[in-house]
Amino acid sequence: MKKKNLLKSNAVQSLLASLICIALGMLVGYIVLLFINPSGASEAIVDVMKNFFNFSSPAKQVQRFGNTIAKTVPLLMCSLSILFAYKVGLFNIGAAGQYVAGACASLYAALAWGWSWLPCLLLAILAGAVMGFFVGLLKSYCNVNEVISGIMLNWIALYTANMILTKVKEVASPYTMYLNEVNESAFLPSLGLGRFFNNNQYVTIAVPLAILVAVAVQIVLDRTRFGYELKATGNNKNAAKYCGMAEKRNIILALMISGALSGLGAALLYQTGYMRWECTQSSVPGMGFNGIAAAFLGGLNPIGSIFASYFIQHITDGGAYVDKSMYCSQISDLISSVIIYLCGFVLFIKFTMNKMIAKREEKAAKALAAQAESKEGGEK
């Protein structure tokens, strides 16, 4: 029986390609640190990778680990949003705006209307889906590229959110009011999960819920007829139409689901109380854009995105621990950016792997043929 070559597996190739991207990203970050100040470059790159392990107290490490996990949840949801749309042949760069819409909806419902956590969560999902609906509508019926409409809607969402949330901000600061002071019922329940992270209040049901959503996305895309139709529409909408599929409906639905995932991600962060919205901010939150890195680093696989999202958030938080007298904390953002760029070469890396495997197999086949020929000649 012929042994199966593991390197031919798409999953193994995706993993190896991601590890190569990470290694090269860290190498580029280290080289930049060397140019800035070579004396502390090695220590700085280690600090970025260590993140919460920079604390000597185990209790503090566990608590900070919980913080990283809490911030990984919205990043995972944004990566699933990017991934879902990409599987349907769409590039949902509007995930950032859909994330903003979800944050705005959940916070306003919690602070202005006094809603409890579940209705706030559902409203955030609806807000993100509505943003995705407009992108899908423009794509399906007006042939407007989803990248163009998505970017435009990002800024519309940002400034609309700033205006709406100004009504629920503190008088003396640009930030929205504290949830625990206005409406504690809007907090996501923890179900005791915080105990495992030294009573970290930010670790809530958001963590298992995000993992369940990732599994659900995997099942929908790979195990259902609906997922097959979505991917078929993405590959060739004309062929999908010829086969009787509603290609316009599928595009709109795909972007609505994608938007709903981003909106949910925002609610899963802001309803923990970990962050408050700044009503004067003039740039779209980076979570939606970091989701691109997590999606591609995870090999465009929902389960892979879980680990990729954690890694991206881990090094992003790790940037806060570098020596500020020599370097700025944005070194982690540089590393993430390089990894995003290198993820564009994942297909090339896989192609190179397959080419090398084919050459080795060809060489082995020739050697085997030569051996068989010499054996046959010896017998004669």
Structure description:
This protein has helices at 10-36, 41-50, 58-87, 95-111, 117-142, 146-165, 179-182, 206-223, 225-235, 237-242, 247-270, 287-297, 302-318, 331-343, 346-379. With 380 residues, it is mainly alpha-helical. The chain contains 15 helices and no strands. α3 packs across α13, α5 (117-142) runs antiparallel to α11 (247-270) and α12 (287-297) crosses α14.
Radius of gyration: 24 Å
Q: How many individual helices? A: 15
Q: Biggest β-sheet, characterized?
A: none
Helix content: over 70%
Number of strands: 0
- Structural class by sheet pairing and helices: mainly alpha
* Net shape: globular
Order of helices and strands: HHHHHHHHHHHHHHH
Rounded mean pLDDT is 86
Regions with little confidence, pLDDT below 50 for 5+ residues: none
Would you summarize the structure shown here?
By secondary structure, the protein is mainly alpha-helical. The protein has helices spanning 10-36, 41-50, 58-87, 95-111, 117-142, 146-165, 179-182, 206-223, 225-235, 237-242, 247-270, 287-297, 302-318, 331-343, 346-379.
What layout of secondary structure does this protein have?
Blueprint: H1 10-36, H2 41-50, H3 58-87, H4 95-111, H5 117-142, H6 146-165, H7 179-182, H8 206-223, H9 225-235, H10 237-242, H11 247-270, H12 287-297, H13 302-318, H14 331-343, H15 346-379
Helix pairs in contact: 1-2, 1-14, 1-15, 2-13, 3-8, 3-11, 3-12, 3-13, 4-5, 4-6, 4-11, 4-12, 5-6, 5-11, 8-9, 8-13, 9-11, 12-13, 12-14, 13-14
